[in-house]
Amino acid sequence: MVRVKHRYLLVSLLYPCASSSVAAKEPLPDVIHFHQPSSDQLTVPFLLRVIRDSVAELFGDYGAGVVSTSLQIKYLSPATSTAIIRTPRAHYQLVWAALTFISSLPKPMNQSCVVRVVRVSGTIRKSEEEVIRRAKDIIARAQRPGVNEGVVGDILKAVGRTGGRREEDVMAVMDEEYDENDYSDSES
Amino acid sequence: MSGPRAKGSTTDSYAPKKRKDPPSSSSNNASKRHRPQFPSKTIPATSTSKAFPNDEISVSRFVQAREREVLALEGAMQAAKRGQMRRAFQDVPRDMRRRTASHNPRRVPGRLRSRMGREMREDNTTKLRGKSGSGVGKGSRMWIRKDGVMKKVQKRKEKGEKGREKGKKRKGEDCNRNSVGAKDTTKSDLTKDEKDALAQRIQNRKPRVKHSTSLATPPTPPARFRKRQINKSWLPTHMFHTKRAHMTPPSQPLWRFALPLTPTAKSYRPTHRANTLRGAIAWDMSYIATIGLEGVEGSITGLLKSLGVGDGVDEEIWEDRGKGKKWRDGVRVWDGWIFDLDAWPEGIAPATVIWCTQEKNGTMSSEQPPGTSKNKREKRRVFIRTHPAGFPHLWGKASKLAKVQKPAVSIEDLRFEIGSIVVSGPGATEALNSALWPSPSLEGQEHSPDSPETVWKTLASLTNPGSLPLNALLGFNISDPRLHHPPRTVAVQYDTTSQSQLTRTLAFWPIDKTQSPPAIFDRNVRLASSRSLPSQQSINRRKRAAIPGDYPEPRSTDPQIPVLLYASREAGSWTLLLPWKCVLPVWRALMYYPLSTGGNPKFGGLKEVRQLAFEDSRPWFPGDYPGTRAGWAWELQERLAREKEWAKRPPGKRINWESVDLGNGRKGELGRGWACDWENIAPQDEGQDPQDSTIDPQFSPFQHLPSRIASEFFSPRGFHDPKGVAQVFNIDSYLFTVKLTLLARGVPTPCARIYRLPTTNPDLRARWLSLIPSSESLSQSKNKSSKPLPRLPKNAPSHLRRRALAASLLEPVVLPKVIPQPGHKDYPFVPDKVDLIGFVTTGNFNLGEGKGTAVANLVVAKVFEQERGDGKGKMQEKFLCIVREAGQSVGRLARWEAT
């Protein structure tokens, strides 16, 4: 039997202009400024609509058609601005491109936004593992004392670097091999 | 109950039902067929307003939100796993899975049985009873033996109660166990001193152990396993192996043992790797027979000499210095062949002889220098270990010889008393090191730095047991390995200081001076250790009581298991001797040891023993010695198996031996194609038919020539007979074992025919010789091809170009020497039957060498004949032969070498 193959895009949403709206009593580490929570208006149908519109805008009816076969939001957490998006394997680049071209979220949110594709994988399990790994990493960095305080913090600010940003913060990981064991998908 | 069904029952109550009710989707039915729930597809996520009330962001809330995300996703992964349709028997480890009737809940491991039962009930799978398993005592009525079983349980209960009462009574009295304990009830009114006095007066004589020269009987198995062991015995690790290995068929035990043949997991390459590159491989070799000798040194020496130990080939072991002295002092083992001297040199089997070290008593030796009469009268102990195939012959011989000695040697069959484990591979020492914890010394002090116990602990980083002094041994006591279960990886140190320390230890080998008599030679210690093994329950209790993460504290009452370890340089393996009943705990400790290089040690069966021997081109006893009785029995058995395999195939698909084309108009395979047909090349009297009934098929037509003598005969310097053995004995009927290496391609298989270079047809001989891929021709052709004419630059003037062209045209064309390949019309055909000199006994592609090699046997006389035929031939040509697979017409050139 032939299975329908997918790609799972692990996506994190960044809000470059949002930090002003956040009320904070204490100075927060850079990681928290970087990984802002989304508003509650970011829902699954809303995100889906945004992606569809973006794909249609870039690739027309053709793009919207081929992508719509299996486009689905598997996981969306507004509190952490993380999402796992299922796409058809043959056309995941279209979705990726559409996500990259999103610069702001439309009406109810009306917020400028950057969508970062963090990982592309063949099974949902691997993207879940990646979310866990990243979350743990972020927790560790958020709890690290004194990154933004004292002399070191000042120097970092002066140099214009956020504490502990690494290559993987700006790169997406792709694993093409994980096509098998797609156990989590029961309806295809 | 609602919907269509309820309606139908009310309206059509009087009309007969035409069809069954359709399967309703009511909750009643659904609960009957309970399927594992699919995981809910949505992964729970918290909303921002919940995670950050009042839009207030703080580090702790931020971290909490992420933590909740981690939990949610981990839960999702778990749920997805639970949603898989995996049945219980699919969770059995791969190498333990059985294909046959794996759906039968009685065939899955105990821990999965209840789950499987539940799954079957949920699925409404029919469970057939009485058809599977042994079928004894079950059947439609279930347990026929149930009455008996119930009675037994009742009896045990009663016994237990009685025992408890007795125990209470005994506790009430303060009795001294060492005194005449049986009568303590009547003498309970005596005081303790009186009792001691009495005890001294009526001291029981120590029971004398009678060494009977009768054969040992296997230990009586528990009742439910007894019927399966009528014609065979089980190894101590039988249960471990039956779950994971193909065993000998129940009706065809090997040497009266149920042996593991090969693991069910694929293991050809893994075995090679575990032995040479990384890891370790272990065998339960408890089937190897041990004979114990006890007597004065002179008698034992006499007995061993008359068994041909070191006779003619290894004389220096009887000298009073060096190797021989160390061997008789009990710090080295001796490995070699044992012969039946009535018909020298009829080899019985390869054997290992180990002397027990003498007690080192400082005061005594100063009073009486060695060699005095008392020293001579002192009893010594010796173990002879041999393969079970050669055991009956050896036992018969040795027990006769033991009586002849003056004073007589007592001989004991220790077959089911001493078991053994062999471990080989780079991780072998490490794994053994973790399994064998030297027991703390009795006085509670540390072992001396040179004692075997301390030295053993320092050997963990040794990767090749062969780098120990040749045939070195260590004997000490270990504590119960179950106390240190699960085993942990030994901290192997590879820094320079510890490595140099190890090198120094290996070079000086301090154990030569410190080895005390290994306790395994003492029957009482052996028995005591196996009797005092605590139950698993009590071990568990102690483990529970221990500090978490620590092993239980050693106690003075812990059993001390005597072990003897020796390394083999040939095979690069450790051999561990230990009491039969202690094999299993040590085996478990070995099998579950996490190696520092990753993975666990593997286990092997008989096939793996043979494979590794073949990879080292070591002949394997008995299979590669058709000249011995045991080897001949093996050959006959293999022959039958191969014939059966051949006859099983339909006539159109099996090799038709009559039509095998041997070239030059000859047709038909020589002898029986499925056999190493030794009868066919045996020297016979004139006019005797090879299939004559007067030849007893139970006896080999040949005898085995010891390898040391063979390698003297056929040394690389030439064929000669230094001691004139050939004149004394009729060498016509002797075989010797060789290693074959094919010169070109091809893989030899068992039963392949081996020819010498043609002696009758010089033309054919020359054609065969032209096949030798000489290194000279190879290098020449390489040089030619690698040095083409120097290329001219593109802008070279035309006259230079023309000159170069002329030169290249005038260049004589040198064609590379074309070696005809099989199938080509110029490929020589195989020689005649007179040139048949032997058969391949083991052959395959050798992973160690990267090409086909074989172990074969050749007829001594035929090889010497060749020498007489062409005495002037090149040295190299003498060691050439032609190998032809049985049933094939293509021969291939090979080089042999006496092993």
From TrEMBL, chain A:
InterPro entries registered for this protein in UniProt: Pop5/Rpp14/Rnp2-like, RNase_P/MRP_POP5, Rnp2-like_sf
One of the protein's GO biological processes: tRNA 5'-leader removal
Coiled coil start-end: none
Pfam assignment, any one: RNase_P_Rpp14
Keywords: Hydrolase, Nucleus, Signal, tRNA processing
Catalytic activity: Endonucleolytic cleavage of RNA, removing 5'-extranucleotides from tRNA precursor
Superkingdom of the source species: Eukaryota
Enzyme class name: hydrolase
Annotated localization: Nucleus
Cleavable signal peptide: 1-24
GO cellular component, one term: nucleolus
EC numbers, comma separated: 3.1.26.5
GO molecular function, one term: ribonuclease P RNA binding
Family, per entry: Belongs to the eukaryotic/archaeal RNase P protein component 2 family.
Function as written in the Swiss-Prot or TrEMBL entry: Component of ribonuclease P, a protein complex that generates mature tRNA molecules by cleaving their 5'-ends. Also a component of RNase MRP, which cleaves pre-rRNA sequences.
Record protein name field: Ribonuclease P/MRP protein subunit POP5
Species whose genome carries this gene: Lepidopterella palustris CBS 459.81
From TrEMBL, chain B:
Keyword tRNA processing: yes
Domain Pop1 N-terminal: 62-295
Domain POPLD: from-to ranges: 573-678
InterPro entries: Pop1, POP1_C, Pop1_N, POPLD_dom
Polar residues: compositionally biased ranges: 39-51
Residue stretches making up the POP1 C-terminal domain: 735-897
Record's keyword terms, sorted: Nucleus, tRNA processing
Pfam families, sorted: POP1_C, POP1_N, POPLD
GO terms, biological process: tRNA 5'-leader removal
Region listing for Disordered, in residue ranges: 1-59, 77-231, 531-555, 778-797
Ranges of biased composition (kind: Basic residues): 96-115
Residue spans of biased composition, Basic and acidic residues class: 116-126, 184-198
Bias type Low complexity, positions: 778-787
A Gene Ontology term for the protein's cellular component: nucleolar ribonuclease P complex
Subcellular localization(s) per the UniProt record: Nucleus
Taxonomy, superkingdom: Eukaryota
PANTHER family from the UniProt entry: RIBONUCLEASES P/MRP PROTEIN SUBUNIT POP1, RIBONUCLEASES P_MRP PROTEIN SUBUNIT POP1
The protein, known as: POPLD-domain-containing protein
